[in-house]
Amino acid sequence: MPPKRVLNPQSIFDQASVEEAFEELKIRPQHLHSLYSNLILRSATDYDEIVDFPKKAKDYLSQNYVLSTSKVIHKKVSKSGDTIKLVVRLQDGLEVESVIMFYEPLSLKPAPENDEASEGETKPKLVADGTSRRATLCISSQVGCQMACTFCATGTMGIQGNLTAAEIVEQLMHARKEADIRNVVFMGMGEPLNNYKNVTQAVKLMIDSRYFGLKPSRVTVSTVGVIPYILKLATDLPKVSLALSLHAPNQEIREQLVPSARSYRLDKLMGAIDTYQEKTGNKVFIEYVLLSGVNDLPEHIDELGELLRDRDVTVNLIPWNPIYSPEIEFSAPGAESTEYFKNTLKNKYNIRCTVRQEKGQDVSGACGQLVLETQAQRGANADCGTADIEDLMSPGAREVSPAPKCNIQ
Ligand code: SF4
């Protein structure tokens, strides 16, 4: 179990708590709607900006809640301008990362003379001009992760805590100041399904058409395979997209890469995917990080092809990249073998397959990497860590362009 975290004061985006308080104070539900629509759609920063908002509600909220419990302490735009990483400090000092990936290159403009650098950040020469550009946000659900996947930097951190639903939503609020977020992928730090209650609560607010209004299929929950919650997700949020971080064609290799596979065996996991698809009708995105000599050999392609051939899936291949954590030793596959893997799955097994386009390398836009890098190097040479772990977002969550890369499960 992750260490328990208690926030005080709470975030206004802790919707369940605010709702409960309004009921106790006998404040009519319409004011709850008014509160969130003003905060989210009109970017209100003061309760006085809300028309006809009861004084009783203002007073109570002012005393017990804050508009944000977290803040962005480090922001970096990639050299190509298509990725922004945000390091977000939580109320208790823990840090998580979010990555914004633009569909089209971001235009950069010179930073204003009076633009102050945030804490721990060197003042940028260029700043992004992206608030009107459509983008995907890769979001974190936990601080660290207990799943300990052997190729993942976050996995080396252990679990430090679950994010509250409000902290998850606040990542979206921070990102909306940088870009027009159209897709959200839970592929940052953490295993979302190990923080099920808070993740689903946050997702419900994100897809609520009265507020953020994200299309459910454009919100992707990525899991390394927590079977009970895959099945629960099919009932609770059937229109939200699911990505499975498979990474291996058989039980033996999967156990080497994903230790939780010992509890959630491959045959049972694929059975859960079948049940999920029967209930939801959704295609499932399969994430597969290619590790040279480990899971990318011709026999592995055949095993994977047999495993997936009659299932409605799209496979996203993620060629391994060096990561910042020196203790993680894997080799990247060559471009030719990656191409061979993809073409064989497509042509021999008729499986839709893409190779992940990488984004954010120079901002270390990968699972767990941002925080690892900045804690170690902030103020030194923030450009040196290239990191990738698993990757990214599902094509189903994309709107226009090739899939950007963030990282992931
Ligand atoms: S790959 Fe995902 S599930 Fe595995 S350790 Fe990293 S964050 Fe956790």
TrEMBL record:
GO cellular component, one term: cytoplasm
Subcellular location: Cytoplasm
GO molecular function: 4 iron, 4 sulfur cluster binding; metal ion binding; RNA methyltransferase activity
Keywords, comma-separated and alphabetical: 4Fe-4S, Cytoplasm, Iron, Iron-sulfur, Metal-binding, Methyltransferase, rRNA processing, S-adenosyl-L-methionine, Transferase
Record-annotated Radical SAM core domain positions: 131-352
InterPro entries, sorted: Aldolase_TIM, Methyltransferase_A, RNA_MTrfase_RlmN, rRNA_lsu_MTrfase_RlmN/Cfr, rSAM, rSAM_sf
BP GO annotations: rRNA base methylation; tRNA methylation
Pfam families in the cross-refs: Radical_SAM (PF04055)
Co-factor requirement: [4Fe-4S] cluster
Keyword Metal-binding tagged: yes
Main subcellular location: cytoplasm
Parts forming coiled coils: none
Domain of life: Eukaryota
NCBIfam families: rRNA_mod_RlmN
Protein name (record): Radical SAM core domain-containing protein
Organism of provenance: Basidiobolus meristosporus CBS 931.73
